[in-house]
Amino acid sequence: MVASSTTRILVDAGLSCREILNRMRQAGEDPEALSAIVITHEHADHIGGLKVLARKLKVPVYMTGPTHKAWFRLIRNEAKRAGAEARDLERLEFFEAGRSFQIGNVDIYPFTIKHDAVDPVAFTFKVDRVKLGIVTDLGRITENVKQHIRGCDVLMIESNHDLEMLRNGPYPWSVKQRIGSADGHLSNDALAEFFRKDYDGGAAFLILAHLSEQNNLPEIARMVAERALGRHASLFQHRLLLALQSQPLEPLTL
Q1: Which of 1, 112, 141, 173 has its CA 20 to 30 A from that of 57?
Q2: Lowest-pLDDT range of 58-62, 183-187, 233-237
Q3: How far apart (Å, rounded) are the C-alpha atoms in residues 86 and 248?
Q4: By CB neighbour count within 10 A (0-12 exposed, 13-18 middle, 19+ buried), where does 82 fall?
Q5: What is d(CA 157, CA 122) in angstroms, rounded to the nearest whole number?
Q6: By three-state DSSP, how is residue 100 classified?
Q7: CA–CA dist 154, 165 (Å, integer)
Q8: How far, in Å, CA of 101 to CA of 219, rounded?
Q9: Quick one: CA dihedral 13, 110, 33, 207, positive or negative?
């Protein structure tokens, strides 16, 4: 979640509605104060709880047109299997990658990323002079991504898998190929290469996110990142953080 003094924005809604509400409360956030939900792409771990959450909180949902079509196709198929009628979102807003928009006093910049979804995006957010980036579910860091996340004061970025654990893990070979592809997920090593060669080192908080429970370990992700960030030693003053799947991240204030 990204919050300012007047605006609260949830990025994606992949958990159940109940779990999302519980985690918001654990983080000290009132769900009734939520301003909007913005969606990165249509995969289930990012939109699984969206329909129920949006209906319960009656907040607008922002996504791209192609993502909405893919999402509604899933909803229609679910409804058909249940013998029910598919219902679209009550408050739906569209945006396009490459064009900024505003929610409350937060400026939002969606940009295209490499992932096997119909129209995947990541976001940077600006409130006054503070810039935050949330970049997960991408197979590689393109020049476009590097440009958009430059100058972030807070950067949450994917460190999905350890290459050796993925190679020797339980997933079918086809899934391993998908995860490791340029349209899949970012490995610890690929992120480390970005840190060594291209990262500007300016974030007050750097957060490793979207860690696989099957193909990664928090201690491995942290170790690989710290080695790569050697020249940015100031980051190690409790500012290199890990976002775990099992619990909400502590609120960060700038």
Answers
A1: 112
A2: 233-237
A3: 32
A4: exposed
A5: 10
A6: coil
A7: 29
A8: 37
A9: positive
